[in-house]
Amino acid sequence: MDFSTMFNTWLKVLTNPREETFQEELDSPRATLTNALIWMFLAGVVVALFSFLVSLTSLNSAAAMEEMLRENPDIPPEFAQMMTPMMPMMMGAGSVLSVILTPIVFLIGTGIYYLIAMLMGGKGDFGRYSYLLASFQAPLAIARTLVGFVPLLGVCISLAIFFYELFLSYLATKVAFNLSSGRALVVVLTPILLFILAMVCLFFFILSLALAANGSTAP
Description:
Elements: H1 3-15, H2 19-26, H3 33-57, H4 62-71, H5 77-83, H6 87-119, H7 126-148, H8 153-177, H9 181-217
């Protein structure tokens, strides 16, 4: 793995967001699924390590959880005593899980984009498309984690990163599948709209269950 080439590619894509940039990367011999997965795996490792270190040093992490367990009258002291030494192990397990899930979630998301793009009449290679997406999703995942620990300001920056990532996804999709602007936009926005619709349906489903339960217990 040539880290210099990797960082240069990330920097090129992030600082020069144009169709020509993505076309150059699409035609590169480095545009493979293997490189995409390596990049996402490395991003997962960096995110997991940073999150683990912050959780160990944060006043709101293990120490706060331990104090909450001991002060909660509903939690038996034996349980609190058992859970206290397990906190670091649980945080470590969470970090390992993050490393594993990062490339898996990336593959699922890329697969969804790829399927929608093909349904929209696009023609492209999955591996090369994955490479384009990883060229900005990997560094942005790291950046999102770094700013996520900054109170208030981190939320605003994370939101800006989200919209910038959408824009880059639009460019990558348009180039990789030779789609029109409108169809590329549909590919990128459809998963978000479906997710919002699913959340709305879930909300009303839970609300209906709560109302039904409340009605059955009413005198």
